[in-house]
Amino acid sequence: MSNQFLDLITKRRTIYAIGKNVEQTPEYLTDLIQNAIKQSPSSFNSQSSRAVILFSAAHENFWGLVADKLKDYAKDEESAAKTTAKMATFAAGVGTVLFFEDLDVIKGLQDSFPSYAENFPIWAEHSTAIAQFATWTALHTEGLGASLQHYNPIVDEQVHNEWDIPANWKLRAQLVFGSVEGEARAKDYIADDVRFKTFK
Q: Exposed, middle or buried by CB within 10 Å (0-12, 13-18, 19+), for 170?
């Protein structure tokens, strides 16, 4: 079947080999990312997603913070060196989007709609996932590669301190992006009859 949207999301893949060879300016990419998040749906139109967009030294600083923090978890020097090298591949990109959810918004909805209170944190996870996917796909349409990382909560304190992030913003994911410097890994799909049921 031919569908423009499906074509885009099929080609959007995790790219680990990224670089700084991009034509787009930080200003252009910031506008792209902001619009992708703004146009992403959220429960009750809560618009609870927040983002911090890092370029240049700030982007590299973030991955340096992650590398330093991960050293505390390394079993030995060899594993520490491997982790540091992995973080360097992320720092090699051109930017990182830090995705947050605003806990005050979620709490406000819980107070206003107590019947749904237990669901709002779940729906907030849906909202941030959609915003992440939309941003990732938007970057792909610009010819950029990206991978979604999750080094929260181990770097939450450092991030909040470094960039003066409000305490009510909860870090959920990190999307690192840059020029495509290597192919995506092969992707296998499980059988449709395992995943889907259709009734007519």
A: buried
**Closest to 107 (Cα-Cα) out of 170, 189, 183, 38:** 170
Residue 94: CB atoms within 10 Å? 21
- The model's pLDDT over 41-81, given as tens digits with 9 standing for 90+, comes to 999 999 999 999 999 999 999 999 999 999 888 777 777 78
Q: Contact at 8 Å (CB) between 87 and 64?
A: yes
Determine the pLDDT at residue 80.
77
Q: Label residue 73 exposed, middle or buried (CB < 10 Å: 0-12, 13-18, 19+).
A: exposed
* Number of residues that this document lists for the chain: 200
> What are the pLDDT digits (tens) for 29-39?
999 999 999 99
Considering its fold, how many domains does the chain have in total?
A: 1
Amino acid letter, residue 162: E
Greatest pairwise CA separation for the chain in angstroms? 59
- Is residue 196 included in any domain, yes or no? no
Local confidence band at 159 (pLDDT 50, 70, 90 cut-offs): very high
pTM tops 0.85, yes or no: yes
Domain containing 50: what range? 12-162+178-183
Residue with tokens 């051109």: 94
Instruction: Give bridge partners of residue 173 from the DSSP assignment.
Output: 99
